[in-house]
């Protein structure tokens, strides 16, 4: 059989064909390609290392998810941005109020003449703070809170004089030319809240459109948010909204600029980033990010 195989081969393929003939006789498989075997071994090692790293990261994130609940800290930070006495020329539906003021303290207590005091630090109270920035300063602040029993709000607009309106169950008090002492500190809501985001960051699966999801490390620092190799600057004027959900203790932060840049960020109750959506940032290919199912 070997001689027949060799006779059928061209002279230039004599050696190779001879080897094939030998393999046919013995039933042995051709010797594997050394480079291919090496590549397969390296790929297996890389996959094993990646699996170990993923498992370690999952354990670390699961441990941090069991860390201290930060829901109350989210609220205190938001309250600190608007705390103060919004005093001015105040009036209700019944007429002017002498020495009137809408007062918000850092412990969550809101009070005004003729209206019941409320406490947004109550565990069942939801909280929303909206800040519209212009020229590095807030031009409008809206503060909403409530639970199953009551809803209330504080809204301040700077159009010439600052006007503050506090409404409790539809009963408003309005103070014109009010001067809250900490008004200027509310220029950047993201920067104030970023300190509650876990310093180690979070690893999410991100995808743009129908592209395959990729693992990205997300880290917040100062006025920036890093997503993989992309770094977003979040220090420009924007409409910012943060909401604390009393039910599950989560924080949702949303910002949008006049130029169409949008960020939607969700923190769980321990400060872990659990969701992110980014659009309008030129050159950033981020899309939507979510935590991979365990």
The number of E-state strands comes to: 20
The outline comes out as elongated
Q: Radius of gyration, rounded?
A: 31 Å
Put simply, the count of helices is 5
Helix vs. strand class: alpha+beta
Count of the separate structural domains: 2
What does this entry show, briefly?
Helix content is 24%, strand content 40%. By secondary structure, the chain is an alpha+beta fold.
Could you explain the architecture of this structure?
- There is one protein chain.
- The protein is α+β, with helices and mostly antiparallel strands.
- It folds into two domains: 72-185, no CATH class; 190-290, no CATH class.
- The protein is 24% helix and 40% strand.
- It has five helices and 20 strands.
- It has helices at 2-8, 14-26, 34-65, 71-82, 189-194, and strands at 84-87, 89-92, 95-97, 101-104, 109-112, 115-119, 126-134, 137-146, 151-159, 161-168, 171-176, 202-207, 214-221, 224-227, 230-233, 239-244, 251-256, 262-267, 273-279, 287-290.
- The protein has a 16-stranded antiparallel beta sheet.
- β17 (251-256) and β18 (262-267) form a beta hairpin.
- α1 runs antiparallel to α2 (14-26).
- The radius of gyration is 31 Å and the shape is elongated.
Q: Helices, strands, pairings?
A:
Blueprint lengths: L1 H7 L5 H13 L7 H32 L5 H12 L1 E4 L1 E4 L2 E3 L3 E4 L4 E4 L2 E5 L6 E9 L2 E10 L4 E9 L1 E8 L2 E6 L12 H6 L7 E6 L6 E8 L2 E4 L2 E4 L5 E6 L6 E6 L5 E6 L5 E7 L7 E4 L4
Antiparallel strand pairs: 1-4, 2-3, 2-11, 4-5, 5-6, 7-8, 7-16, 8-9, 9-10, 10-11, 12-13, 12-20, 13-14, 14-15, 16-17, 17-18, 18-19, 19-20
Helix pairs in contact: 1-2
């Amino acid at each position: 059989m070997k001689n027949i195989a060799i006779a059928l081969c061209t002279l230039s393929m004599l050696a190779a064909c001879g080897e094939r003939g030998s393999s046919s006789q013995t039933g042995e498989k051709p010797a594997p390609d050394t480079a291919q075997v090496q590549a397969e071994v390296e790929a297996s090692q890389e996959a094993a290392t990646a699996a170990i790293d993923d498992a370690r990261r999952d354990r670390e994130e699961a441990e941090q998810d069991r860390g201290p609940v930060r829901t109350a800290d989210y609220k205190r930070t938001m309250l600190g941005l608007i705390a103060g006495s919004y005093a001015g020329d105040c009036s209700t539906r019944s007429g002017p109020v002498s020495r009137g003021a809408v007062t918000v303290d850092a412990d969550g207590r809101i009070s005004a003449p003729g209206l019941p005091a409320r406490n947004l630090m109550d565990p069942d109270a939801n909280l929303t703070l909206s800040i519209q920035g212009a020229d590095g300063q807030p031009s409008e602040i809206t503060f909403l809170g409530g639970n199953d029993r009551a809803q209330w709000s504080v809204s301040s607009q700077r159009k010439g004089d600052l006007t503050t309106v506090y409404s409790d169950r539809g009963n408003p008090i309005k103070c014109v030319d009010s001067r809250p002492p900490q008004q200027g500190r509310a220029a950047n809501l993201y920067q104030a809240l970023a300190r509650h985001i876990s310093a180690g960051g979070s690893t999410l699966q991100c995808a743009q459109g129908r592209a395959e999801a990729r693992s990205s490390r997300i880290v917040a620092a100062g006025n920036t948010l890093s997503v993989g190799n992309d770094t977003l600057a979040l220090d420009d004027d924007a409409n910012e909204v943060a909401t604390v959900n009393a039910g599950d203790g989560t924080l949702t932060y949303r910002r949008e600029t006049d130029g169409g840049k949008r960020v939607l960020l969700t923190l769980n109750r321990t400060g872990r980033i659990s969701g992110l959506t980014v659009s309008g940032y030129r050159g950033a290919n981020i899309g939507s990010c979510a935590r991979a199912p365990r």
